[in-house]
């Protein structure tokens, strides 16, 4: 799995232009309706490769993001994915797949400093990877953890409503929350499973430590519960970051732990050595039974990823990694490389 978005886009290529058109209509409406609230266009452009068992897959991709404020309380936001995939075929040639779809399209209405009401098609707030690390310009690795699909209801997207915000905010701690309900939607462009759940997180600013818990329940077909826990830590006055997540479902469970350290202490963040960022990720999945895969390996699997990223000027990053995966189904090596450029600019000059 080279890109997390490939997990959710296979069945979305037929009517994808319709969703892009919806975003364009919203964009134009905002532009001519309220020019002083300037929308921002952001996102990333990348070229990624993955080599497994001597066969290399090439994936050029674009992930544009639109954030369009309408007045002081309403924000329209959306992210799209345009992906080309060239993978080795049995006859020695390459298979080509093409995907265009919106990752999400939602409206956020800020009621107060403690409550934002979200409606539309949104990323499920289960764990942290789906909302925070799937953009290619943020993540340290070009593929998602092995347990990513647990709790994501097959598409990692909900269509319905969500409440989120800061429940308590103090000098020494804060607690934020997100609670959602998703309806069953069979349309390919807004496909979603009937489900409910949410996430709560405690943040300690002096320790720069976040601990959170997630829960959601599938309300469609076989009803199942999913549980998650995450710990993020960024020690003060260091360039070290630790991210981790544990998820558990009815048929499987797993965890990942990721650490990275930018060598900016050696000459500053703009020096050639200060731009180097070693990364390591440890992960394991465990089977509770083999009735349903939940998108995880059908046998107990462990994997270690070793990466070396380089942060070039002008928001450009080079990603390289080597992974060794161990399981009863066979051990394998995975080599991944990529170059990603992050862009950000206003749609037009604001007043």
From TrEMBL:
The species this protein was found in: Granulicella tundricola (strain ATCC BAA-1859 / DSM 23138 / MP5ACTX9)
Keywords assigned: Plasmid
The domain of life for this entry's organism is Bacteria
Q: Any idea what this protein is called?
A: Uncharacterized protein
